[in-house]
């Protein structure tokens, strides 16, 4: 979204085409899976607080539902594009398949900046989005969730609108809801924790103790915050964090050689992932404008912001000390830079495996909501750990056995599972 020359959908298709060729996927199945099955483009009129009317563009794209109801977040972003949503819906299909949950892939978006909208304007926008899609979504059709710059409050407004339209209670329509209103314990931590579960397993395979490692993180929203906290709890040292500053409209990197405290940093971070600069200075952080996070002499890089963040512009700046790149964001590495990393010897935990903890826990929430029975947090996190660990081991085993890149191995597993589903249904 931040680079007009980058097209995430073409990137997603290129990744798919590479593996489809590798596994000899037939032409009809390839054509079916390399594009979305349904797209919804619409406008949302919203009455603003000053009495004026403003028109927002919205999208919902369902990539594939052969394995189950479509699943995917809705993001608010001023630079949202339909190709970004297409790519994300496609990645969601592979994400659900790689952790073997019975869901398909979808994604939604609204071109807006919620940082400049009041709560009332955001609520009317959420309800307007649901009104456009109420007949084409539901607990057994397509289930949305939070994503970039959306949260539990937005999800509850959307649920309320959906239930008002359909005249009933359907808590399984949407996930990421507040606990006590159909939300699942552990959902807030799930994506960040899931990321670290895969990092833990990668380090174990390499015979490296986590307490002897350091990490640099890009982004400090929900995913990065909980990843930093669990990584620290397991003994790791976060020495650099990079995030967007809403006040200065620029990116800052915060560094501390002896380690940053993830929990304390979270307490000084706003709802959009911006760290308070003055409080960071008081903690002894060194600050630098720009993406210095990628240049750090650390063992692990965790890009946890948005897509297209590691490119040919900065891939050469990655330290030779880096052993693992764990992709907490969706599509953080573009195709050209990925070729460099592929040949560098760095172990990559690809995005749709590394950050699948969120959709896995969303699936748990969906199951709980549909059954009106809720689990304890410890149960949720144990189930999450088991799913993420099992998925990682399957991908890593295939990668090692066939001597193929981890990203390709994850795609082979996912594409084969989805292709089998469409064939069994008789679609091709």
Q: Which consecutive residue ranges, at least 5 long each, have pLDDT under 50? A: none
Radius of gyration: 21 Å
CATH superfamily of the largest domain: NAD(P)-binding Rossmann-like Domain
Q: Could you give a short account of the major beta sheet?
A: 7 strands, mixed
Tell me the number of structural domains. 2
Give the helix/strand class. Answer: alpha/beta
User: How many H/I helical runs?
Assistant: 14
> Percent of residues in beta strands?
15-25%
Calculate the terminal CA-CA distance, rounded to whole Å: 34 Å
Range of helix content = 40-55%
Provide the succession of SSEs. Answer: HHEEEHEHEHHEHEEHHEEEHEHHHH
Question: How does this structure look, described?
Answer:
The chain is α/β, with parallel strands linked by helices and 428 residues long. It has 2 domains: 38-177, Rossmann fold (3-Layer(aba) Sandwich), CATH 3.40.50.10860; 184-428, 3-Layer(aba) Sandwich (Rossmann fold). Helix content is 43%, strand content 19%. The strands form 2 sheets. The chain has a 7-stranded mixed β-sheet. The longest helix has 26 residues, at 377-402. 51% of the residues are buried.
SSE blueprint and pairings:
Layout: H1 8-23, H2 27-33, E1 38-47, E2 53-64, E3 70-77, H3 82-98, E4 104-111, H4 119-133, E5 142-146, H5 152-166, H6 187-205, E6 214-218, H7 222-233, E7 237-245, E8 250-260, H8 262-267, H9 277-282, E9 286-289, E10 300-303, E11 324-326, H10 335-342, E12 347-349, H11 351-354, H12 357-371, H13 377-402, H14 406-424
Parallel strand pairs: 3-4, 3-5, 6-7, 6-10, 10-11, 11-12
Antiparallel strand pairs: 1-2, 2-4, 7-8, 8-9
């Amino acid at each position: 979204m931040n680079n007009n020359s980058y097209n995430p959908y073409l990137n997603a298709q290129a990744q798919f085409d590479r593996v489809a060729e590798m596994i000899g996927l037939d032409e009809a199945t390839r054509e079916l899976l390399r594009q979305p099955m349904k797209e919804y483009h619409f406008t949302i009129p919203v009455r603003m607080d000053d009495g004026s009317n403003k028109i927002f563009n919205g999208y919902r794209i369902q990539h594939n539902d052969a394995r189950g109801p479509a699943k995917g977040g809705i993001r608010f972003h001023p630079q949202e594009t339909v190709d970004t949503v297409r790519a994300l819906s496609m990645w969601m299909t592979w994400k659900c398949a790689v952790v073997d949950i019975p869901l398909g892939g979808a994604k939604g978006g609204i071109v807006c900046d919620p940082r400049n909208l009041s709560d009332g304007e955001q609520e009317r926008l959420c309800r307007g989005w649901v009104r456009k899609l109420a007949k084409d979504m539901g607990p057994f059709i397509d289930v949305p969730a939070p994503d970039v710059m959306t949260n539990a409050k937005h999800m509850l407004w959307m649920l309320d609108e959906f239930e008002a339209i359909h005249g009933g209670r359907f808590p399984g329509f949407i996930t990421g809801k507040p606990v006590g209103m159909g939300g699942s314990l552990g959902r807030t931590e799930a994506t960040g924790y899931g990321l670290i579960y895969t990092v833990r397993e990668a380090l174990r395979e390499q015979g490296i103790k986590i307490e002897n490692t350091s990490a640099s993180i890009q982004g400090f929203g929900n995913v990065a915050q909980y990843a930093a906290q669990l990584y620290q709890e397991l003994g790791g040292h976060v020495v650099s964090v990079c995030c967007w500053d809403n006040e200065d409209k620029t990116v800052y990197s915060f560094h501390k050689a002896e380690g940053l405290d993830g929990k304390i940093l979270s307490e000084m971070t706003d709802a959009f992932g911006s760290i308070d600069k003055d409080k960071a200075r008081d903690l002894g952080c060194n600050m630098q404008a720009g993406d210095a996070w990628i240049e750090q002499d650390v063992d692990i890089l965790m890009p946890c912001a948005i897509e297209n963040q590691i490119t040919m512009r900065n891939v050469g700046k990655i330290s030779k000390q880096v052993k693992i790149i764990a992709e907490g964001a969706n599509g953080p590495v573009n195709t050209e830079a990925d070729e460099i990393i592929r040949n560098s010897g760095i172990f990559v935990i690809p995005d749709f495996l590394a950050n699948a903890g969120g959709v896995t826990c969303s699936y748990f929430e969906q199951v709980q909501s549909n059954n009106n029975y809720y689990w304890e947090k410890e149960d949720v996190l144990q189930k999450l750990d088991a799913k993420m660990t099992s998925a990682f081991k399957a991908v890593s085993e295939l990668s090692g056995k066939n001597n193929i890149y981890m990203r390709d191995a994850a795609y082979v597993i996912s594409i084969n599972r989805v292709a089998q589903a469409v064939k069994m249904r008789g679609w091709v």
